């Protein structure tokens, strides 16, 4: 079974609204084993929407639309779908009664414009909207073709899809797709693909696909099966092979970000931590704070941007700064030791570098970063050179600091 997602709304074409609905729907359809070969965005124009329907049905079985169900004249998705299938619009009494009560409850009278939201193509399956005034519907045509019409606001669309559309589509598919996501850090996408290329070249069911995110790399293993249980059994041996190849470069599964994985490790092992940051400006501690419960172990975070702050707050020696500079292995080491001494934490993470765009030299270019790590008296420093703009350098520094910390905690 194939589907096309069509987002309808001129505001999408103008860039006023980001189309997050397509991403959500694509993921949901994938779990059902329904292939999405194309996503389309069309403005509020009947002729163009009809053309999009015609084009989509040349290859797909189901069209899922979002948007265009409001009360105004340019909200025409339902009406255009009805016209495509040559079906008359009829008043749906249950939806009409709901609208009347909704407006009365809010001290308003139902207008003729809003009444149009209660009209649906003949024989359509009406989908209740528990979070707004625009119901959706499923319109069936000839040759088992169907258009699923959903509202545009995500807070309305997502619950409607999960509660009403998902059960409907589940009955139409014999197989589902089951996926497991492994998250990788410290290995680039191309190198990771090289490591697992034999698995990729010999894949059948399950399949394996690497792709890069902003701060890490994801490896998705997907199996086609009759049930989730059968799917995960098919995934097991592939996952085992991947883990043997990538080892501790795999930091987690699913949607959990690196900072949550590290936060959980710190809390589970009851390891207190403090940070001393220069070029990252508190980004390392900010990422850790996103993990609920981190207050049990995160004692403090110091942004010591100036040399004076490094000396006064962390006890970095003036001679160290004069002889080696603020961006140096020696300074990073004293920063890590200094924050541990000042806070009494088990772990100290320090960061000093040149985020750019200016301030670099041949000896110390933009992107040069030193990360210090003090764990129970043992102090280490790592040197990194990152490419990219200021934000990328800062982000990559914070991510690599946490990844290094993760690996060190694993070896305690």
Overall description:
The protein is elongated, with a radius of gyration of 28 Å. The longest helix has 21 residues. The chain has a six-stranded mixed sheet, with helices on both faces. Strands 14-13-15-16-17 form a five-stranded mixed sheet, with helices on both faces. The chain has 16 helices and 17 strands. 41% of the residues lie in helices and 25% in strands. The protein has three domains: 169 residues, MoaB/Mog-like domain (Molybdenum Cofactor Biosythetic Enzyme, Chain A, 3-Layer(aba) Sandwich), CATH 3.40.980.10; 78 residues, 2-Layer Sandwich (Alpha-Beta Plaits), CATH 3.30.70.2860; 153 residues, Maf protein, CATH 3.90.950. Strand 16 and strand 17 form a beta hairpin. The mean pLDDT is 94. Helix 2 runs parallel beside helix 7 and helix 3 packs across helix 4. It has 412 residues and is α/β, with parallel strands linked by helices.
